[in-house]
Amino acid sequence: MSKYKEKAFTTITYTAALFTIVVLFALIYGLFREGLPLFKQVSLTEFIFGSGWYPTNAEPEFGAWTFIIGSFCVTIGALIIGIPLGLGSAIFISEIAGNRLKEIVKPVIELLAGIPSVVYGLFGMSAIAPLIRNWLNLDTGLNIFTASVILGLMIVPIIASMSEDALTNVPKSIREAALALGSTKMECIFRVIIPAAQRGIVGSILLGLGRAIGETMVVLMVAGGSAQIPKSIFASVRPLTSTIAAEMGETVMGSLHYQALYALAILLFVITFVINLITELFIAKRDKQ
Amino acid sequence: MKNRKVLNFCGNGFLSILVVITILALCIFLVRIFSLGGKVLSWEFLFTAPRNCMQEGGIFPALAGTFWLTVISICIVIPLGILTAIFLTNYGKPKWLLKVVQIAIDTLAGTPSIIFGLFGMAVFVNLLAMNVSLISGALTLAILALPLFINSCIEAIKSVPFDFYEASLALGATKRQTITKIVIPTALPNILTGIIVCIGRVAGETAPIMFTAATFYTRRLPEGLKDEVMALPYHIYALMTEGTRPETQVPIAYGTAVVLLLLVLGVSAAAVIIRSSIRRKRKW
Amino acid sequence: MKTNNYLVTLIIMLLATFSLNATKGNQITCTGSTTVLPIAQATAEAFMNSHPDINISVRGGGSGVGVAALQNGTTDICNSSRPLKSKEISAAKAKGINPVAYTIANDAISIIVHQSNPLKDISIQQIKDIYTGKIKNWKVLGGPNLPIVVISRDVSSGTYEVFNEKVLAGAKVEGSAQLLASNNAVLSSVSNTPGAIGYVGLGYVNESVKLISINKIIPSEATVKNGSYMLSRKLYMYTNGKAKGDVANYLGFIQSEKGQQIVQEQGFINIK
Fold first, then answer.
1. Where are the domains of chain A?
2. The CATH number of the domain covering residues in A53-288
3. Residue B144's closest chain A neighbor by CA?
């Protein structure tokens, strides 16, 4: 009797595990099935490098280049803001802060991680954007700069927590050796500890990058929405995620526009998949060490 | 030597400034949201439906919508997550299957939320003709939360000391009995933390529900799985981008944000408290 | 043991959810145009006040969203600020959906600029030139030396479609134009940006922006009804087949005197 119970239990766990594989394949299959037909009518190069996105015109154009550039700009901007703040906080927590300070700063950063993206978007749209517009006398506060600031703030906890883990895992002996040889604290940190922890730090940055590229609500509300190649950091852009979210509801199943949006989703999926793969390889290497 | 001391001092100062900026940013953020949103909060705000074109009344339908979306999706995720985690930690033969499942989980975990929304719309709303409804949204959210929960469960199960396994098997229990009666109950508090973290994540997501479950305005609470629901995060987005009377609606958006933040942060705080109380109680 | 408990709780919960279904009244879903949204919401509220057992769920997203939902069969009523295109009607019929139009209001697409802009009047050709990028600075039109910030709507907008048809005649909007998601977004953008120009439904125009006349004609009830304002249009609600039951009651309410009063309160023009 119990043999059957054993078998049954094993079967249930295997089924559950298979389910996750099924979900992933359903996702990939669904995306590709709905999006690939676009390429019967639009060539791949036209899609990736074309800069006109006019899906509802009599002669529709489907060029995703402006969106790719938009995603790229906003992500780089977010990293420019997020890396110093995140890494700085991580170094501070692991090397400089005393225990009491650690108890304050660490939960604060974890708090940042829990804030839903739409609330960041709300803040960016109604508080930061008008501020930046007035300060710098711009046409609009909804642009790459504002989006980078908000996105950067969003990825700080990701970079901070993983980097902090990496830094604390550096063996005490290395630290003590450097200090014993007469280095100052800062020299110790920047010349010894950070290089030792570099795998984890780079891993955290890649994670933050993946998050920034895939973020939807913040860029939808804050990046502006112009489908153009930006000429300055104060220009409006429309990243891939914004376009998909903005136009998703209006497509009829099976229409060319519908297929184009799925093609965009395929593009986005491939990009994030590659970034995740690279991140995995990095982290795996570190574990092997 | 002096030069290096100066550099040391500058370095310290620089790092401190960075941390201060981060914390300051968070404080400004919270202060702004709570001050603008706090003005709107009241008993009425929490427990009545919107009135007069969303200018008065409250967000009760949105609270109910978020509640049901979260509860249903978490209920779907819990058994799947625990069982998959059990597979990954205890069974895991053949090896290639293990690898594939892990790749699947990691890929899903890194997928942008909008892609889940697109998938949900194509499959649940259109293909399976479930329409924009509570169940479509909950299923989409469940797929999003699954990889996160599985990872939490794996950590939870791994934290059970190996001695427990050995002792149980030595006493004659089968693998199944060991897992279901010893390992899972021991890992339960950590699994609970994982559930709570997922709840916080799911309640705050907007992109997956935008076209699978959420609606701009409805008066009634969801009464069945096929109803459209209002949801807190979508409400914020809709008021800010489609609201028709911004002077009165922007404060309501902030109020909704406050409620959502309190919910999510309260849930995170609960997770931290549970985690530390477990650590204290544990005798190993 | 714990698993058993858990399963039992789950089943009870799901049963409870389904049983609540038994007390459910009737549900009407209404999706689409952000221009029609204030009318839909206000009339839905009034209708629900007098018919407490009916629940109306209103969603925006743009006319395109409504049309797609109608074709996909996921909504009862499609709010649209433009008539359905013949392509859309035939695609719908191919899916077994028969769109029937109900006119619920008259509207004027109003051209708005920032409060500080001295411009008072404009021609259709000038609007077209601005939106296609031929005119880039306000000084060309006699205004200050300020670059024009072009604000438009995204592709799901019915307002954009009508604008495109009547002003642009299919020409492409220039690349640096901001494509916003709703009338309200355009309104707030224009009111905050000194060099901006945009277009919204008449019901959205308020004191935060300046309304411009087209060929000296200002959008109003009179000029829309006699056709002298060039960007007049009707607002529609489409259903699948002729409306029946509660949906018919709701549409009838909107087209009745009481409903039309609400239309006017929202700043639009009634259908008489």
1. 53-288
2. 1.10.3720.10
3. A23
